[in-house]
Amino acid sequence: MAKTPASASAMSGRQYISEATRKGTEEPSPNQEMLPLTARVNSRDCLEIGGCDVQELVKQFGSPLYILDEETLRTACRQYREALKRYYPGKASAIYASKAWNCLAVCAIAASEGLGIDVASGGELYTAIKAGVRGENLYFHGNNKSRAELDLAVETGCTIMVDNWLELETLAEMVASCDSPIKIMVRLTPGIECHTHEYIRTGHLDSKFGFDPNQLDRVFASISKQSGLECIGLHAHIGSQIFELQPHEDLAEVMVDWLVKADSYGLPTRILDVGGGLGIRYVETDDPPSIDAWVKTVSEAIVRACKEREWPLPELMCEPGRSLIGTACCTAYRIGGRKEIPDMRTYLAVDGGMSDNARPITYGSVYRAVVANRMSEDCTETVTIAGKHCESGDILIKEAPVPATQPGDILVTMGTGAYNYSMASNYNRLTRPAAVLVSDGVAKTILERETYEDLIRGDRLPEGLGSGLSN
Ligand code: LLP
């Protein structure tokens, strides 16, 4: 089938397919693209991802549909791995922050690329275990882990990212009944500001996460008295969807200072986990650094900070989520009704919305879309893409340039791999979409579409309540 990798963007009247980020023979950094790396326009004028025609995918699997491109996800994993090897002279690894998208298949892919998995709840931990990830490759986060979650984590042998005093006390109690020490890392709030939405900023001092660094001595002193707790590392995460590199340079300085202090308490701290945060390109004007550039900056900053303090290099760990999986997925919707308000706005409704992508209504996040079955048609109007929920704010894209469309056309929003499925809900009792993994022209279901039966699976009608209603 003839394939034409078009390069024009919606800005020039053409629909977006791929910006000229593919310089020379250099492999693109997935987070700098808007569509998955395998996106093409095929001879039927349709968008194709992973060799699969998106319109055919919708026919086969229904809509809305999350379409996850295996190649893009694996490329991002590999780029983190290779860049760490290239730029960091010590031991280094990336772990996947699975809160971005936690399900069996995604955990299995990340693990098969040699990444550990960061989980943030018992449910994410359970999923990762069921995907076959071994405890030694699991890292458990959360600011209010329950006793049951901690029990599961300890049983699994994963590393617990200790967030607060209560958790430290609970673990200290738990060690009494453990045969081997519990591996922990300490999460601290570094007091570093960065430019991102306030809800996804976590490094500033006024944050619910992590220990206050002003209590560092107390924290380390307390841990050093617990022989059953093996403090293998220190952790910080400054926020998400960050385009600046400077905050991560600053973080390196702060964290190496912590490391020096931990040593003075005799703790066996050998890992610095700098968190995640690298942003992705949702719209043409977004300009995140590449994975390579981010890893280089972080690595060099740690090497520099250690050299200045004449301190041996720690093991470096990072926890990317969005930049690993964000660009690998697109969401396909069927276009439904149209409402034109003269001199004001035209709404195009799609068959999903805030239940499959909560980011626009939650953070005011901006997305771009293409009409997958009309790829060569010029954009002739700017419309507002509305979801189907009973909520005025259920708008996926405020201003979307699109060609002339018909009901039934396929609208594809880009960059939906991170925090879309993982934040999906059943609002208005919509069933959550299916997800397919595409590669080499083959699509495999990784998440079944929910059914109405799924929706009422946990519902219970106390005796007497349902009687007589059908009369
Ligand atoms: N490590 C920790 C401890 C985190 O809390 C997070 C994200 C990450 C790593 C991964 O960060 P990333 O590389 O994805 O930026 N729901 C929000 C994002 C919340 C991020 C939460 N923590 C959104 O949709 O933008």
Q: Could you say what the CATH topology of the largest domain is called?
A: Lyase, Ornithine Decarboxylase, Chain A, domain 1
Q: What does the overall shape look like?
A: globular
Mean pLDDT, to the nearest integer, reads 93
Largest sheet features = 9 strands, mixed
Write down the Rg: 24 Å
Unreliable residue runs: 1-12
Proportion of residues in helical segments: 25-40%
How much strand content do the residues show?
15-25%
Which ions and ligands are bound to the chains?
ligand LLP
Q: What is the count of DSSP helices, taking H or I runs of 4+ residues?
A: 12
Structural class: alpha/beta
State the CATH superfamily name of the largest domain.
Lyase, Ornithine Decarboxylase, Chain A, domain 1
Summarize the structure.
The protein has 471 residues and is of the alpha/beta class.
Task: Describe the model.
This protein is α/β, with parallel strands linked by helices. The protein has two domains: 8-69 and 328-451, Lyase, Ornithine Decarboxylase, Chain A, domain 1 (Beta Barrel), CATH 2.40.37.10; 141-320, Alanine racemase (TIM Barrel), CATH 3.20.20. The protein has twelve helices and 20 strands. The chain has helices spanning 54-61, 70-87, 104-112, 122-130, 147-156, 165-175, 216-224, 246-264, 291-308, 322-325, 359-363, 452-456, and strands at 40-41, 47-49, 52-53, 65-69, 92-97, 116-119, 138-140, 159-162, 182-187, 229-235, 271-273, 315-318, 329-341, 345-350, 369-371, 381-386, 395-402, 410-414, 434-439, 442-447. Strands 4, 13, 14, 15, 16, 17, 18, 19 and 20 form a nine-stranded mixed sheet that branches. Strand 2 (47-49) and strand 3 (52-53) form a beta hairpin. The termini are far apart. Mean pLDDT is 93; it is low at 1-12. Residues 97, 99-100, 118, 141, 200, 202, 237, 240-241, 275-278, 319-323, 359, 363, 418-419 line the site of ligand LLP.
